[in-house]
Amino acid sequence: MEDNRMNELEQYRKEIDEIDQELTRLFELRLNTVLKVGRYKKQRNLPVLDASREQAVIEKNISRLTDKTFEPQVTKLFQSMMDITKETQTALLKSEP
Asked: Can you state the angle between helices 2-43 and 71-95, rounded to 10 degrees?
């Protein structure tokens, strides 16, 4: 019985690992696009922060949820990603002439 539960747990962990692999791939794509946005903003002297855009991104992704009970987690996820985005863009602005 214990062996079956461990197999089940291992299967769940394997699923999470596969999802994490895809998330990493997608996040890398997102960061590469963020760098393009950062360069665009730098060339046009635009600020890194666009609070209305951030709120729109969060709201758009919350609306995509099938299970709305995950709204706080999705909000936190996108806030964290956008914090990383701003850090990445700010570093770019400082490092490139």
From this structure: 40
CA dist list (Å): 33 to 39, 46, 67, 88? 10, 16, 28, 11
Contact 82, 54 (CB under 8 A): yes
Structure tokens given for 23: 């998330």
pTM of the model: 0.84
**Segment 67-81, tens digit of pLDDT:** 999 999 999 999 999
Q: How far apart are CA 40 and CA 54, in angstroms?
A: 17
Contact criterion met (CB below 8 Å) for 27 and 82: no
CB 8 within 8 A of CB 62: no
Q: What is the pLDDT of residues 43-64, one digit of tens each?
A: 999 998 899 999 999 999 999 9
